[in-house]
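Async update (no meeting this week)

Hi team, since we skipped the sync, here's where things stand on the single-chain job. The sequence we agreed to prioritize is pasted below, unchanged from the tracker. I ran it this morning and attached the output directly underneath so nobody has to dig for it. Comments welcome in thread, and please keep replies under the output.
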Amino acid sequence: MKNMATAVAALIFAGSIGSATAAPVINISGEGSSAAQAAEAAFLGNLNAGYITETFDSGYTAGSQSSSINSLAGVGMFTMDVAGVGGACDSGPYSCSAGLAVLDTATSPYSGRFDISPDNWLDSMDAQEMTIAPTGGYTAMGFYMTDPNDAGGRFSIGGVDFTFSDIFGSALGNGKVFYISLYDDSGLGDLTIYSNHSNDGYGLDNVTIGTVPEPGTLALMGLGLLGLVLVRSKKNKA
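Output:
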């Protein structure tokens, strides 16, 4: 994975990214469970009280599919916008076009995606395009991502794109895990995840939304030094 920590640190100390207007900010942990868990702990430690976490463990039927899944914890709505085709999502009892699924180990057709929390996770079911519409009034979101695609995919939030090649690099092996956190001082917009293949996907778990005390942007940039941080102005969409 590409590591921009040194460059970002220099910019912070130089004051080049000292303003919260340079939103949105995306932070990615180092790869692996230890790095991802450390990033989650740091992210939660930066949030104000009252944040919400969806673990997908309570109230869901593992293996059921739907085009949209509303978070029972109140995090927001998860929607498949463009289905994948072929591969494991069209095997056994599943159909790519039937939508997203809450899975566990017993119901999963995939080998590289797994739970964090500790039972279920939300699976993209190889969606080529999936949107997270967070509940309004929050400025920060964090989540685990297991088995992300290699290169060619991207995150898009508030009209700003962050490519997977910038975030994860390329040639990722099966079963990798990262912790992703996002911040936008003007309020979180919808996050759309674009996949690079029609028969490849990812799992999401422990999705948290919250608010960050000022100066929130610098706090989250500090968290980003655990792995990778990218900041892009809304005026300069990638």
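Quick observations from my side:
The helical segments are 5-14, 33-46, 164-167, 216-224.
The longest strand covers residues 203-210.
Reply here if anything looks off.
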